[in-house]
Amino acid sequence: MLKIHDVSLTFNEDTPDEKKALQGINLELKKGEFVTVIGSNGAGKSTLMNVISGSLIPDVGDVLIDDKNVVHLPEYKRSKMIGRVFQDPMAGTAPSMTIEENLAMAYARDKKRRLVPGVNKKRKDYFREYLETLNLGLEDRLNAKVGLLSGGERQALSLLMATFTEPNILLLDEHTAALDPSRAELITKITADVVSKFDLTTLMVTHNMQQALDLGNRLFMMDKGQIIFDIKGEEKQNLTIKDLLDEFQRIRGKQIESDKAVLG
Amino acid sequence: MLISLFGAFESGVIYAIMALGVYLSFRVLDFPDLTVDGSFVTGAGITGMLIVNGMSPIMATLIGAFAGFIAGCITGILHTKGRINALLSGILMMIALYSINIRFMGQPTVSMLNETTLFSQIESFWSSGIDSVLNSMFIGAERVPTTWAIFIIMGIVTIAIKFLLDFFLKTEIGLAIRATGDNQKMIRSLSANTNFLIIIGIGLSNGLVALSGALVAQHGGFANLNMGIGMIVIGLASVIIGEALFGKKTIARVTLAVIGGAIIYRVVITLALRVDFLEPSDLKLITAVLVIAALVTPKALQARREKKRRLAKRAALMNQRGSEASA
Ligand SMILES: Nc1ncnc2c1ncn2[C@@H]1O[C@H](COP(=O)(O)OP(=O)(O)O)[C@@H](O)[C@H]1O
Ligand SMILES: [Mg+2]
């Protein structure tokens, strides 16, 4: 489904600000794999997401989706196959447009956009049906401007918009980090639901170790632009936060007090 | 008086098409496009030349509008592919068009006074019976309009364009254009080619502007190299006045407001020019003052309402406390 071969990316190469954001990343995800990604700030998690989505082009290496090399496909073409939710709840929706118009734009993602009305009776029913699964009452507010929604509601809507065309790959970059705990929990639950409902191949970056352990069936730990730990299946099921921290210490062999603060 | 106000309405509905174009770039795409000053003349000049050379007015008008579309697309390309700042792309295209326009026109002014224009055709088709019926509603007016043909036909054309624009902005492509002005990152993550949408959007915007220029030229009987100077500000004035007076809740509402704004702008200018100490050369100053007023007034009113509300609340609270203390 998703393959990444030897991807490296350096920002500001040959300047004092040089930053090796990704160093020789290799990975392979099978259809339906749900990977949670953890790692300290600056580990390269967002950069990895951006390389997969096409917002960034790696210096070297290939990105393959369904065995097709997409590394030189521009972002807007790749996004037919990729659903994304960003950390900022404002980033995933158009605030001055209505809920149904936002959904209509997401609906058109994997199709060619045409000169036909984006919203019609049939699609409205379809949107309403999907919104009902969120249990937020949004199905009764199809004509409300999205800018009037709360951060949690907008993030739930973004998640729906990213997933309901059943993309080949779903990328979630700390999409619950900007929400209060109860909203974050709700979005986490919705995430688990939609991913299993559509059997989506998913990469989810999170700062919350417990969340990384609870969700998904595979886990990556990233540090300094590398995937330093990759665990799946039963082994992941039995993993604890302490195991993760020990593992990190073993691999990196250094004091992790400072990282603990960030990771916890 | 009445007759000059009628003239203001008549040219208002023609300039409204230009204002709709400015609405598309400034508001929908959030792209401050200054190409307008040039593309308005492109529409006027090319149409004028083609008419003088014997082309049918309707064809000439459509070609003029298309030339504006191309000019707008080039501005869009400068911005998206050339990565030039939006404002600067428009300015560059505007000054380039100044030279291009004079190439097309051959001289600074193209006169169509003795030519068949769209409007002379409309008037000759028009039944003067309608005029006398309409004019009879103005009993007591010392002078009545010679013909209602232009106002009515152009009103219909402008309203038709409004409805087309409303429809377009709700299509799948139209929604993506609006999202490009609202949240570019988001619509790109939904597989929209934002560069293409910006190019098409700015193209359409300038197509409308050039169409308006072509019609204004035929209405006035001439195209002039300098007739576009300050056009962008007039367009903005119409958009801002319209939004301030008629609201902007929905797309259909704003486009109607923009047409209203264009007409009101003409009316205000007409009235201002009747004031003795104002000269025609003061027009641009009046326009600037109008835009400033339309921008500042709604905010000032809002602030005053808010302040009043706060004071009232505070007073109510004080009263309540007072009565509690005495009880
Ligand atoms: N556009 C950029 N220009 C320069 N440096 C960047 C840019 N984006 C990210 N970086 C740097 O690359 C490193 C990895 O960043 P990022 O992938 O955002 O980390 P994470 O998401 O894991 O916190 C960081 O050191 C960051 O400062
Ligand atoms: Mg990040």
TrEMBL record, chain A:
InterPro entries (alphabetical): AAA+_ATPase, ABC_transporter-like_ATP-bd, ABC_transporter-like_CS, ABC_transporter_ATP-bind, P-loop_NTPase
Subcellular location, record wording: Cell membrane
Keyword Nucleotide-binding recorded: yes
GO (cellular component) term, any one: plasma membrane
Chain ranges of the ABC transporter domain: 2-249
Topology in membrane: Peripheral membrane protein
PROSITE patterns the record matches: ABC_TRANSPORTER_1, ABC_TRANSPORTER_2
Molecular function in Gene Ontology: ATP binding; ATP hydrolysis activity
Chief location category: membrane
Gene3D superfamilies: P-loop containing nucleotide triphosphate hydrolases
Pfam family, one: ABC_tran
PANTHER family: NITRATE ABC TRANSPORTER ATP-BINDING PROTEIN (PTHR42788:SF7), TAURINE IMPORT ATP-BINDING PROTEIN-RELATED (PTHR42788)
Protein name from the UniProt record: ABC transporter ATP-binding protein
Protein species of origin: Filobacillus milosensis
UniProtKB/TrEMBL annotation, chain B:
Keyword Transmembrane applies: yes
Membrane topology: Multi-pass membrane protein
One Gene Ontology term, aspect cellular component: plasma membrane
Main location: membrane
Residue stretches spanning the membrane: 12-29, 58-78, 85-104, 148-169, 190-216, 222-242, 254-273, 285-301
Gene Ontology MF terms in the entry: transmembrane transporter activity
Keyword Endoplasmic reticulum: no
InterPro entries, A to Z: ABC_transp_permease (IPR001851)
This protein's UniProt keywords: Cell membrane, Membrane, Transmembrane, Transmembrane helix
Domain of life: Bacteria
Subcellular location: Cell membrane
A Pfam family assignment: BPD_transp_2
Alphabetized PANTHER family for the sequence: ABC TRANSPORTER PERMEASE PROTEIN YPHD-RELATED-RELATED, BRANCHED-CHAIN AMINO ACID TRANSPORT SYSTEM, PERMEASE PROTEIN
Protein's name according to its UniProt entry: ABC transporter permease
